[in-house]
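Preliminary data (for renewal application), NDP complex.
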Amino acid sequence: MTKGLFDLTGRVAIVTGGNGGIGLGMAHGLAAAGASIVVAGRNQAKSEAAVAELVAGGSKAIALTLEVNDTAAVKAMVADTLKAFGRIDILINNAGMNVRKSPDKLALEEWESVIKTNLTSAFVISQAVHPAMKEAGGGKIINIGSMMSIFGASFSPAYGASKGGIVQFTRSCAIAWAPDNIQCNAVLPGWIDTELTQNARREVDGLHDRVLARSPSGRWGLAGDFAGIAVFLASRASDFVTGAAIPVDGGYSVQG
Ligand code: NDP
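Predicted structure:
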């Protein structure tokens, strides 16, 4: 019964923003478990480099250009995935960004841009892949939230709102699409060493050391820390797990 529990051979996964950071860490996990990967990224050169890494490891992978706020591009990406691989089993809504300003300083356009990129795109892309997953007899959707799905942060009003929204959106899909055998879960990363946080570290004095001091694990997270959770949530191993929001943060969020 447990044989092949984590085997993703024959499965097809789309990872948005999968050309670097956490998305690429997850893509490596899925590829190692046997899945074919669509790296759906904005920067095609970066996506092709990510695909080259995956293919060098013996996996099937392609790069598709995707600006997640462009609905037509989302539809084209789904159609191109089906053309290339014939099915979609796994979607990771990972693309995300932040504008670090307090609520009194954040412009409306900045608010809208963060909400669209981090939250609205997850809705648009999930809705676009739902028919293919249903037709395949089931699927797995993994949405990337944040510790700021739970915590407040004075300098990230739109980011926090978008990441809190991701958890509630995940729960809606989990309930609505359970009859289609589609499990939807959210992953809440802690402080992870990626391009996104390299900017934050430049802007916020002492951030690096404060994270180290508070983290029970005593280190920043790495993109590779997301390979295992991706495989678990994309595989048969998690068939009875849906609507969950799982911290992957080295214990940061449970430290009082
Ligand atoms: P990165 O900056 O390395 O990755 C973000 C990815 O999202 C990039 O590939 C970026 O593309 C892509 N992206 C951003 N906007 C768009 C867009 N409009 N259309 C298409 N792609 C887009 O950061 P992380 O790996 O850290 O972030 C991945 C996810 O993890 C995000 O949702 C982030 O909010 C979340 N997260 C990260 C944490 C951390 O500590 N790093 C903590 C909590 C959550 P491009 O390279 O072209 O900009």
